[in-house]
Design goal:
The structure holds 2 protein chains of 2 kinds. By secondary structure, chain A is of the alpha+beta class. Chain A folds into 2 domains: 78 residues, ACT domain (Alpha-Beta Plaits); 70 residues, Alpha-Beta Plaits, CATH 3.30.70. In chain A, a hairpin with a 5-residue loop joins β2 and β3. In chain A, α3 packs antiparallel against α4. Chain B is an alpha/beta fold. Helix content of chain B is 39%, strand content 16%. Chain B has 25 helices and 20 strands. A 6-stranded parallel sheet of chain B has the order 3-2-4-5-7-6, sandwiched between helices. The chains are: A alpha+beta, B alpha/beta. Chains A and B meet through α1, α2 and β4 of A and loops of B.
Chain lengths: 190, 589
């Protein structure tokens, strides 16, 4: 099993994206979160919101498969009665987006550098104070990782990421190109 | 027709075919107790809500029908948490109805408020907080559907008091909407063929039978499969009775206190066919040393059990009965192809030698302290063969499982996965309520008995003539055994005293008959006397040898190869281990 170290030190293949369609009922998030905690599975990030059909919500969970085999996590999740469907999205077969907000100390001398950096990444300045800026960047998680790394050059006063949301790509890549999918294949059954 | 939520709840239970429920009223559930007065459903009034839960479990395990318990909010609900956890571990169908404070008071720390759906989320298959009286038929129907289908389990329905009072338009049958609940379908033909291919090649196979076979009502199908294949059968603690102990293919119970042959057969097997079993740590011992040469066919109705502990070569998600029948059908007319008797001859020779050399063993004495195993054997021999045996948790449970002869399914009721001390007395009452025509003997320990014995009052009041055998060794015996074997005989907080309480007087105070047997020659007469009583509960205080230990034993965390047999057989087991090591070293093992 190969591991690719990404700049922030996380092993990319440890993180699998599960999009979980759940019934939009009270306590569903607690059931999902409770399952992860009582079985010792690690959640890397989690985002939840209603879908276009108000009977259902979609939870996007990035799980850490170091803590348990993906297949076991999926099977246990599937036992929750309010969980309707679970799909695993291989990173290459998914479009992923995440939002980052950061408040950065930016004395007048440094301010233009920060604004320039935000511009390079296609983000925006959303709030301005005398000695600080709040900036926003939406994009693929690895882009946010890169931006976050560069922001460290300045004094980051506060930083919040939403956790990623994902949907399958419309054009599924032809089999020959889907190599990333196979980096960490689930063990063959049987 | 307009009904109150409370009336709709009781009517829904009636429509689900409930004949009995076990419970205790209180403030938040009060509205529901009113229509109970005019319902044909029998209500058994318990003395503690834990008793209600275990009675419902005992009822369910003995009858196969879901057990129903009803409690009030707050402490009433938390008192039934242990039975819910127990039923969850042992996949017992249990429906618990709890009262809740009125909807407007939820979240305000109201009197007797407890977030019981939150508390029981991890120990129920599903639970509900009902928010509208209109929903009651749907929720009750869904509750019974979930409790009894697929992998059975406990569910809880929490009903706020205002919902019980509210008016609703009665409707039945309800539309159950469970878009996320799916059951495994028929097994894929290809998987069945792959399983059969392994079974045809196996030279040292074992059918590893778990409680799922009983849940699937598959005992007959299992017998047909065993007889067709000639494979030896082990039945786990949860599966005792799924295959007759007196059948020549039966090796008995495997695991931490399993017999030598059952444990060692699995260790040396080249194929394990696991049917409704989950590779529990008490069966496998150290997992990475468990059955090292075995390929695995794993059948379970819960797909999450497949590949959880042990990777299966063929994993089949499905109901045990359906899968066994598919195996039998696909295997017709012969499973062997070649002659299974010929192929398995050497294996059976080996198994018979182990059975002869390492039978279950204790020191049989005509005098001195009563041996607990002798009490179990005498009970077994003097009671009807279809007697239902119920146990608590500890040494007495292991002796009951080892020394009883289970020849019928659904005659063994015990707490397996959760290991709940105090299970026996209430579970026996529930079993007897469900199977009044059967003799029900609880084999209990003195420590366990003291935890829930007050339910004998319930048994006396409700005229449920259960029989309780206390193997009274004056100790928390299993803990004492571990302290003796693994903690250098440093006995910490395990002594209970044989006379405090006086079990005979206690039994009498609770409306039961109390008997005592202190010497070996008093054992049989006491049992005969107890068996002759059928109008009230009986408690027999058997004063047993405090120093007796359960053998064999695989120490916790050890490999099953390191099974410790009775000291009388120790030298033989050591010789067996040495010869295996020699064979392995020579490359023939």
């Amino acid at each position: 099993m190969s591991r690719v170290e990404v700049p922030n030190g996380a092993a990319a293949e440890r993180h699998h994206i599960l999009t979980v369609l759940v019934e939009n009922k009270a306590g569903v998030l607690a059931r999902v979160a409770g399952l992860f905690s009582r079985r010792g599975y690690n959640i890397f990030s989690l985002a939840v919101a209603p879908t276009d059909d108000d009977r259902f919500s979609r939870i996007t969970i990035v799980v850490d498969v170091e803590s348990a085999p993906l297949d076991q996590i999926v099977q246990q999740l599937d036992k929750l009665v309010n969980v309707v469907t679970i799909s695993e999205l291989a990173p290459a077969a998914a479009v992923q987006r995440e939002l980052l907000l950061a408040t950065v100390a930016a004395a007048p001398a440094a301010r233009s550098q920060v604004i320039q950096l935000v511009g390079v990444f296609g983000g925006e300045v959303v709030d301005v104070g005398a000695d600080r800026l709040t900036v926003a960047l939406a994009g693929p998680p690895d882009k946010l990782d890169g931006f976050e790394g560069l922001l460290e050059t300045y004094e980051v006063l506060d930083l919040q990421r939403t956790g990623r949301v994902a949907l399958p790509r419309i054009d599924v890549p032809p089999p020959g190109r889907a190599r990333l999918v196979a980096l960490d294949p689930p063990p063959a059954a049987g | 027709m307009k009904l109150t939520g409370a009336q709709a709840l009781v009517k829904s239970l009636e429509m689900e075919g409930v004949e009995v429920m076990f419970g205790l009223p209180g403030g938040a559930i009060l509205p529901v107790y009113d229509p109970i007065l005019s319902s044909p459903i029998r209500h058994v009034l318990v003395r503690h809500e834990q008793g209600a839960g275990h009675m419902a479990e005992g009822y369910a395990m003995a009858t196969g029908r879901p057990g129903v318990a009803i409690v009030t909010s707050g402490p009433g609900a938390t008192n039934i948490v242990t039975p819910l956890s127990n039923a969850y571990m042992d996949s017992t169908p249990l429906v618990v109805i709890s009262g809740q404070v009125p909807t407007a008071a939820i979240g305000t720390d109201a009197f007797q408020e407890c977030d019981i759906t939150g508390v029981t989320m991890g120990i129920t298959k599903h639970n509900w907080l009902v928010t509208s009286a209109e929903d009651i038929p749907e929720v009750v129907a869904a509750a019974f559907h979930l409790a009894t289908t697929g992998r059975p389990g406990p569910v809880l329905v929490d009903v706020p008091k205002d919902v019980s009072f509210a008016s609703m338009e009665w409707h039945w049958p309800p539309q159950i909407d469970l878009p996320g609940y799916r059951l495994p379908g028929a097994p894929a033909r290809a998987d069945v063929e792959r399983a059969l291919a392994l079974m045809r090649q196996a030279e040292r196979p074992v059918l590893y039978v778990g409680g799922g076979v009983l849940k699937a009502r598959a005992a007959e199908a299992l017998r047909a499969l065993a007889e067709k294949t000639g494979f030896p059968v082990v039945t786990t603690l949860m599966a005792r009775g799924a295959f007759p102990d007196s059948h020549p293919l039966c090796l008995g119970m495997p695991g931490m206190h399993g017999n030598y042959t059952a444990v060692t057969a699995m260790q040396r097997a080249d194929l394990l066919v696991a049917l409704g079993a989950r590779f529990d740590d008490r069966v496998t011992g150290r997992v990475d040393a468990f059955a090292p040469e075995a390929k695995v066919v794993h059948v379970d109705v819960d797909p999450a059990e497949l590949n959880k502990v042990r990777r299966a070569d063929v994993a089949i998600a499905g109901d045990c009965k359906a899968v066994i029948e598919a195996l039998l059908e696909a295997a017709a007319p012969t499973l062997g192809g070649d002659d299974p008797a010929l192929r398995l001859g050497a294996w059976w020779e080996q198994l018979r030698r182990w059975q002869a050399e390492f039978p279950l063993h204790y020191e049989r004495r005509a005098e001195g302290p009563v041996k607990p195993q002798m009490v179990v054997e005498t009970l077994r021999d003097l009671s009807p063969p279809d007697t239902i045996v119920v146990s608590g948790v500890g040494q007495h449970q292991m002796w009951a499982s080892q020394y009883w002869r289970f020849d019928h399914p659904y005659t063994w009721v015990n707490s397996g996965g959760a290991g709940t001390m105090g299970f026996a007395v209430p579970a026996a009452i529930g079993a007897k309520v469900g199977r009044p025509e059967r003799t029900v003997w609880a084999i209990d320990g003195d420590g366990c008995f003291q935890m829930t014995a007050q339910e004998l009052v319930t048994a006396a009041a409700e005229r449920v003539p259960v029989k309780i055998a206390i193997l009274n060794n004056a100790y928390l015996g299993m803990v004492r055994q571990w302290q003796e074997m693994f903690y250098g005989e440093r006995y910490s907080e395990v002594y209970l005293s044989p006379d405090l309480p006086d079990y005979v007087k206690w039994a009498e105070a609770m409306g039961a008959v109390g008997l005592r047997a202190e010497d070996p020659d008093e054992v049989a007469p006491a049992i005969e006397k107890a068996n002759a009583i059928d109008d009230r509960p009986v408690v027999v205080d058997f004063r047993t040898d405090a120093f007796e230990k359960v053998f064999p034993m695989v120490p916790a965390g050890a490999s099953n190869d390191d099974i410790v047999v009775h000291p009388d057989h120790g030298a033989r087991a050591d010789a067996e281990r040495r010869s295996r090591a020699t064979l392995a070293a020579e490359g023939r093992g």
